[in-house]
Backbone:
């Protein structure tokens, strides 16, 4: 199913919706796919890719609260909750690809 939104002027922004009405893709006026979403069986957002924010993958628990998330810049997020399911901590870790964990930093040389 597609929803069409008209802006001021001749441009058209298109949204492709799933059967529940959630947006799967948003295409801008120039025909670029500006946003992509993928949803799980419970309707929770599992994957998002946007021109501005890049890629992001998420994993939610049974209560639909985010447990883990990963983004395209190499960061992994883990959320902690108390017994009442209130967020208490947000853990962030930089995950490097295999082989880059011991890569040397760029060398800078100065003329004498």
Residues:
């Amino acid at each position: 199913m597609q929803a069409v939104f008209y802006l001021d002027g001749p441009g058209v922004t298109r949204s492709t919706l799933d059967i529940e009405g959630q947006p799967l893709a948003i295409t801008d006026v120039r025909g670029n796919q500006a946003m992509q979403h993928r949803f799980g069986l419970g309707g929770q957002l599992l994957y998002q890719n946007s021109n501005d924010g890049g890629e992001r993958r998420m994993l939610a628990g049974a209560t639909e609260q985010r447990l883990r998330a990963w983004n395209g810049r190499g960061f992994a997020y883990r959320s902690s909750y108390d017994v009442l399911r209130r967020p208490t901590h947000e853990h962030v870790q930089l995950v490097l690809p295999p082989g880059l964990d011991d890569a040397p930093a760029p060398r800078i040389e100065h003329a004498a």
